[in-house]
User: Which sequence fits this backbone?
């Protein structure tokens, strides 16, 4: 195998494929990336849970394939001088790397043992812009559970129906739901995608109006762009019926400036290290929201002007759960609805009906 490629283009392709590589895999070959030169150059990373294939622009001199250690190869290419890089593989699977005055020879692994990326049936297909997908992931991923004892909650539910795509994430204390409505007629399906998969695809795609195609089968999901494909296993199981979690009636609704609320909660939380043990107290009165907390370190109070529709209430919340949500919403004016002092509260944003549910904490 032999090819010539710009150093930066090659480095970008390696960085993309590396996102699927396990640093300490059970099999040595899985710590590597597969480089294949045929009609075009592709670089593949595969953890058996996630597989990424990156297409790289290169001049193919001689076809072939090789597996190289992802970390070592990536570091070498990244630190080479600017310009074209020539990669050759000899009959002993040595990989020769040349760029200007730099010359490396590293051991490669025969590619025949590298696991293939599974094919995904392309019956269920949806198309979104990369920017929309990034935003939907950003608005929900932070609410995914990290408790492996409830595997279905360690992923994001993706539902497709009619002209609507819905992402839902729940961790037991909060829920983030983001809808996207389109003129398209989407196929009907419901799958749970691992959080890591969505985290990695969000790092690969760009905030542009270029399309990304998403294909779903019974056990796999494929994200495909012009220069990259990511295939992932789905999480098996039945997701929580999230619609039943949304309250129908509210005792109080407030309209508030998002930035002001975020800044106040961040300041209040400075003296608490445990948001569950030392929650921030919300006191809702006429045209005023008072935030307070008392800890061993001290106490703090913040007053914010608001618009209120409903009853006076006093509730406690983990400040982190509010901060996470307020940081991803871009609108400056938001609505918060409180069902009761012990029932779930809802933050709404007009971005394609973004809903964030948070459970209060009993105030001692």
Assistant:
């Amino acid at each position: 195998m032999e090819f010539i490629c710009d150093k930066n283009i090659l480095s970008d392709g390696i960085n993309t494929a590396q996102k699927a590589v396990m640093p300490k895999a059970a099999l040595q070959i899985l710590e590597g990336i597969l480089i294949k030169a045929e009609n075009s150059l592709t670089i593949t990373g595969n953890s058996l849970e996630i597989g990424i294939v990156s297409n790289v622009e290169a001049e193919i001199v001689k076809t072939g394939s090789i597996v190289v250690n992802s970390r070592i190869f990536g570091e070498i290419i990244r630190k080479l001088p600017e310009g074209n890089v020539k990669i050759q593989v000899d009959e002993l699977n040595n990989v020769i790397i040349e760029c200007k005055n730099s010359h490396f020879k590293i051991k490669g692994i025969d590619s025949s043992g590298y696991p293939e990326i599974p094919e995904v049936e392309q019956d269920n297909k949806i198309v979104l812009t990369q920017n929309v997908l990034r935003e939907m992931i950003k608005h929900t991923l932070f609410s995914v559970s990290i408790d492996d004892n409830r595997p279905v909650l360690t992923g994001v539910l993706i539902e497709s129906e009619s002209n609507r795509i819905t992402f839902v994430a729940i961790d037991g204390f909060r829920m983030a739901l983001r809808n996207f409505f389109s003129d398209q007629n989407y196929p009907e399906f419901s799958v749970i995608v691992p959080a890591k998969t969505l985290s990695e695809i969000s790092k690969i795609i760009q905030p542009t109006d270029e399309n990304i195609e998403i294909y779903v089968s019974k056990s796999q999901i494929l994200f495909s762009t012009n220069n990259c494909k990511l295939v992932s296993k789905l999480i098996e199981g039945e997701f929580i019926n999230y619609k039943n979690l949304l309250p129908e009636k509210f005792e109080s609704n407030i309209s508030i400036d998002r930035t002001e609320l975020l800044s106040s909660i961040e300041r209040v939380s400075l003296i608490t290290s445990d948001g569950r043990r030392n929650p921030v107290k919300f006191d809702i009165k006429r045209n005023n929201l008072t935030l307070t907390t008392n800890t061993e370190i001290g106490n703090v109070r913040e007053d914010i002007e608001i618009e209120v529709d409903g009853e006076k209430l006093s509730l406690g919340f983990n400040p982190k759960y509010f901060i996470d949500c307020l940081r991803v919403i871009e609108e400056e004016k938001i609505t918060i609805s409180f069902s009761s002092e012990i029932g779930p509260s809802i933050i709404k944003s007009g971005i394609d009906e973004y809903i964030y549910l948070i459970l209060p904490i009993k105030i001692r």
In short: Helices lie at 7-18, 70-79, 130-138, 195-204, 258-268, 319-328.
